[in-house]
Task: structure prediction
Amino acid sequence: MYDDLLMFIKLVSLGSFSQTAKDYNTSQPTITRRIQSLEQTLGIQLLKRNTRNIELTVAGHKLYENVRGYKFSIDNIIRNLRTSEGTLKERIRVALPPAMSFYVISPYIGEFLHKNPNISLDIIYQRTAVDLVTQNLDLAVNANPPSSQVAKIKLLHKAHFQLYASKEYVNRFGLPKTMEELANHTVIGMINSDDTVTKVLYANHIKTGEQIALDNQGCRILSNEGLNIHQIVNSGYAIGGLWDTLLMNDTANKDLVKVFPEYTFSEIPYFLIRDAENKSANLEALVKFIEECFNRIQPKEL
Result:
């Protein structure tokens, strides 16, 4: 029965009979049959029938919450015991935002692994929203907080979007003196993380709160990737929006100047996302490392 309880926990976590069958390397009818057998053994109905999605009964929800907690407690005890004996080599699967990680996290990963020889990493660089369960992730840094109740979420950082030009661009074309003059320049606008395009962006005055509407959709270039926007701006032929965090070091920002430095054009929060029940020592070490990386952030004034 214990194996069937674990299968029930996996089924609810994945939200799909087919995905659970794939995870167990078996057939969907086998999963269905074992869940029905568990219901008969317990004498309670766990799932509501005749629904397209996995929907729990009240009893099923209580069972899931309680058994899931016990499972993680046992897993954590075993992990920590093995770690204290120096025997546990753990592979952690983590999703990171590509542009943010380039300067903030990735430069320090090698040193982290050198100091933590029992940890190996699977790193998925991902801009879109994450799902810890379906992606089999242990940890994620993402701008989109999940709705899942099993996730523990912590705000790490807020990045601000501002306009930049290279010094070479300024020498060639000069800088716009008003927002209206941006229409006479090659400007790189934003594509959102879900690949949609916001028609209007608002320039927000940092001190007064004044807002000015700008035509984002009409920009000559639209892009969704900060590192490549940075390269286009560096070429000296375009003004582009960049997150201030990407320019945190002298190497990144030495040849750039802010356009309308008194305005920001957007704000994006970055969240640390993890399973609330997973407290393995190795995962805690990785969490601490990522938090330390973000604590280093001190964007430069250009």
Remarks:
- The chain has ten helices and twelve strands.
- The two ends are 64 Å apart (CA to CA).
- The chain has three domains: 2-83, 88-157+269-295, 158-268.
